[in-house]
Amino acid sequence: MAVMVADVVTDYWSLGAEVDDLGDAVLVRRPGLPRSTFLHRLRPRGVEELDSALDAARTIAQVPQIVLDPDAPPFVEAELVVRGWRIDTSVQLVLPPGASGPAPDGPVRPAADADREALRALFRADHLETDRRSGRAARSEERTDATVEERWALGPSVHWFVADDGEGPVGFFASWAGGARGTGVVEDLFVHEDRRGRGYARALIGAAVADARVGGAGPVVIGADPSDTPMRWYARLGFRPTVILRSLTPPT
Ligand SMILES: CC(C)(COP(=O)(O)OP(=O)(O)OC[C@H]1O[C@@H](n2cnc3c(N)ncnc32)[C@H](O)[C@@H]1OP(=O)(O)O)[C@@H](O)C(=O)NCCC(=O)NCCS
Fold first, then answer.
1. What predicted TM-score, i.e. pTM, was given to this entire model?
2. Is there an atom of ligand 1 within 6 Å of 198 CB?
3. Can you tell me which atom of ligand 1 is nearest the CA of 190?
4. Burial class for 52, CB neighbours closer than 10 Å (0-12, 13-18, 19+)
């Protein structure tokens, strides 16, 4: 289950991207969006093969991120950490096929093309809040624009939902039915600070899970930050903690 969830999550982030199988690793990239490049499915048997895989990837693109799955040889993480790469973690929770999500009631609707500018403004609010809370300098507008472009580049199989309080979108969430694996993903939950505590996130999760199920998903995966509180709420909703995914970013 843990490996399958890791595969589903990387499948999601590979949607619409160019994928190069390098043998001991798989490179995922999007022309024009260099920060979204990542390397995953690392299977080197030793340090030389790890370096060969990294060199092979770098002949194609810079590698700003490596995503590790539970089947990656443990030395890869240890070796890269010693070289100065930084670890980030996410906890992945899975709603079992038999469990329904929260009721999709509330002012939630599918996003329309006309909502794109409002969605971009919400992504910007999300980034500014994240940076403020972590004590970092605010990231540039260009970084936010690249994040939003990456989301649209996932393509039409990812369905976006907005919470709309009558004056326009105040929150968003996305769902993907999961294709052939039959395991869905719900991703990128945000409600504007001024509109929290009104059940909008609950309704967004309900709508996204229901949409993934209509598309054929049985289990549905949601990711969360292990240092933040939403993961506990997801668990109360019936999502089961399943695996910690690690990603590594290179030293600057
Ligand atoms: C997490 C987030 C989406 C919740 O949005 P929201 O619209 O306020 O959530 P809801 O009103 O639907 O409430 C969700 C749950 O959190 C609880 N909650 C909401 N606001 C709360 C508050 N201020 N204090 C304590 N609990 C609160 C609710 O009781 C509810 O639990 P319940 O369904 O068991 O009653 C929002 O805070 C947010 O966007 N945060 C920043 C981005 C983020 O963390 N995204 C999730 C990434 S994993």
1. 0.96
2. yes
3. 39
4. middle
